[in-house]
Hints:
Blueprint: E1 13-19, H1 30-47, E2 50-57, E3 60-66, H2 72-91, E4 103-106, H3 109-121, H4 123-126, H5 133-137, H6 144-147, H7 158-162, H8 169-182, H9 195-200, H10 204-213
Antiparallel strand pairs: 1-3, 1-4, 2-3
Amino acid sequence: MPRLARIDAPGVLHHLMIRGIERRKIFWNEQDREDFLDRLSRLLPETDTACYAWVFISNHAHFLFRSGQVSLATVMRRLLTGYAGSFNRRHKRRGHLFQNRYKSIVCQEDTYLRELVRYIHLNPIRAGIVATLSDLNDYAYCGHSALMGRRNRAWQDVDYVLSYFGETRRRAKKEYWSYMEAAFNQGRRNELRGGGLIRSLGGWSEVRKHTLKGQPQRSLKLTHLC
């Protein structure tokens, strides 16, 4: 059965997931993670792709991207092909690194952006990498640390996400923390991983109509941060 064409147009919000082949690790060590981060830091600004949330787990990763003028398919091909080649050379291995193609789910922004940021950023706790939210503040391979001001990731759009939580940076960070804390024991959310998101938009036909019409950008609240 042929694969469905991906929804791919400027301004569309996507929840993306990549996974190692046969659920094997795609990050063996810190050098691997830093390599992937370096690629993100160069590729996302170059392609005008916005990143609102992200996390690395040993055998998979999640991202919340808004596509720019360069197609998301091109962005992901460059990102994953480049990383896989570097990974294989570094670890003296051959063959595929990733399981099939990446998974991409079109998201309705006003309904799901906050939920997806939280769901993605709680992954290290669900995976047992860190035990508490305070520990998550210092986990280097998750976008939560940038939202809390612990790390600077120039390619991660912190201001846009915080604009959903408050008018000022201080207020927004406090509300974001409370929002994360409220779901500390949240398990896997299947409605945030596939069909639920598509159904919320009225099915693929409605997603395509919505994409073709264009999606208005939400105005940014945090024009003057304090």
